[in-house]
Amino acid sequence: xxxxxxxxxxxxxxxxxxxxxxxxxxxxxxxxxxxxxxxxxxxxxxxxxxxxxxxxxxxxxxxxxxxxxxxxxxxxxxxxxxxxxxxxxxxxxxxxxxxxxxxxxxxxxxxxxxxxxxxxxxxxxxxxxxxxxxxxxxxxxxxxxxxxxxxxxxxxxxxxxxxxxxxxxxxxxxxxxxxxxxxx
Amino acid sequence: xxxxxxxxxxxxxxxxxxxxxxxxxxxxxxxxxxxxxxxxxxxxxxxxxxxxxxxxxxxxxxxxxxxxxxxxxxxxxxxxxxxxxxxxxxxxxxxxxxxxxxxxxxxxxxxxxxxxxxxxxxxxxxxxxxxxxxxxxxxxxxxxxxxxxxxxxxxxxxxxxxxxxxxxxxxxxxxxxxxxxxxx
Amino acid sequence: xxxxxxxxxxxxxxxxxxxxxxxxxxxxxxxxxxxxxxxxxxxxxxxxxxxxxxxxxxxxxxxxxxxxxxxxxxxxxxxxxxxxxxxxxxxxxxxxxxxxxxxxxxxxxxxxxxxxxxxxxxxxxxxxxxxxxxxxxxxxxxxxxxxxxxxxxxxxxxxxxxxxxxxxxxxxxxxxxxxxxxxx
Amino acid sequence: xxxxxxxxxxxxxxxxxxxxxxxxxxxxxxxxxxxxxxxxxxxxxxxxxxxxxxxxxxxxxxxxxxxxxxxxxxxxxxxxxxxxxxxxxxxxxxxxxxxxxxxxxxxxxxxxxxxxxxxxxxxxxxxxxxxxxxxxxxxxxxxxxxxxxxxxxxxxxxxxxxxxxxxxxxxxxxxxxxxxxxxx
Lengths: 184, 184, 184, 184
Hints:
alpha/beta; Rossmann fold; globular
């Protein structure tokens, strides 16, 4: 099994990147391949329905290619304005132009980290919809991490024991979900 | 009163642009100022939280400036992947970095045109959320126009009488809503 | 101006009822009429589309009547299963059978209180939709109160100063919104 | 494998019941057990958080029992006021009080039939959320059937060939999804 993992943030010290790294470490420890991507690797022009007629940018193709090599995609996304970043939807919009659909039948796991109390839960809820439109199986449980300033300990792990356990058991459940749905 | 009106599409023959033009004509006929924008005027780089620390692109500033001169914003948006375009959210994400918030207290009216039966209703429903996060008053009724191939007559008006009346009365109700909430 | 205020909970010591009472007190202090309802006053049978053909239960009519006497409705609702209570939607479903629509043009303000961190924000977000279907103007800002065990002080006020101020200023903004949209 | 199938309507001639029957026939033809329920079998009192402390009504227990015997649940629901019926959420609210959760790990398939063009798509979209809160795996594709007056032929089948094929292939995909996730 192989998972593509990335955070939808350009900041090296981003808490979403930290959370994505944490997920990657747990996945790798179970002998599952991880393709960890930096968000800047997916920088592509704004979707333009006029230009889209003559093709899809190379970077969108490269994103689709990496996604097609994986069985599932783990996205750790900040919440902007009560929804997920436009840049993330922009990737989805370009990718959806490729025929056949490279993402159909893959699974997805959604996480989010925010300084406030709600952990980006509304954004995660909205993000499910376009991913399901692309025929991904989105894992029903999401992980909204709030109060990020206190959330991590010195070893970059989740400091709260209950939260840490719920994070790891969600990852395990997601791996099983992916194994059942698309990987032998 | 003044309204900023645009379609979230780059294609000159876009049905969303056609619908936006129709709305603009009705508004102008009531002696209300209209600032009709082409979507390409708002082409801006993808939002990047690292770069955002050092400022906001000129075009995002210009969008915010034009919005700030209006009492309300009328958006006619295609639906991609069961949601609104990433490019539209990208504009919102950049604009939200400007302090003070240039859009607070404005109203918004949302319309959508799609070739299929549903007229983009899910995308419109999702689009409300980030606009409300920016403190706009989004008009509760939306206009999802389906089956666009048959929707317009030779004069570029809506061919179905019932649909035309419902479109115009929605515009009138929205104008009254804007007058009450933010314009004398 | 007059507001109908209630909590969607049957428990006398409910934190949602407490929050509704707090809102009512602030509204009354500004010389605005308040009709404070207990949720049990709106106990009505489950909506049944077969029975609905021959009429609407008396209690649904009484709810609609009280709502029709008000300019706005303030609802304080618990969140069950990541959405608002079925009982609340049941009231909306019966009320929507009455012609003409008794709620059209009223405003609504939505609040929620939950023991967890998220304060019922997903439920509030979902609740907007059927209320807008009934042609209410739902105030864009909502009030999700989390960690309810620590939220109230001995005088039944919100203990956190910042939260208290944001609660009161939201109420004031909502009153102004209602005044502009439907009350002289 | 076994599926619980029902329509959220009390009317014997309901188009949602017709669609549920159509799904049941296709499932049975593949040697899969079907428990077809009438909605009136799930008539239960309105959820009341005060009463819920002392227990859950027998009918809610009976619903949970029947659901627990199935691997998946197929719901065909009308749309009221841009959302699913309160009565359906009421069943979910009562069921969620039972510990352990009888629905965890089951799958769900959502369909809707409406006289208008949109086929209840917004209601279906909202219905996913509380079902996922109950730990069901909701199949990402939904089936919103619009224009129900013309939708069925004399044999109670879907008259449009393309629609019929898309309905059947969705059912087949859902059966495979259920087989992979919870049934051997």
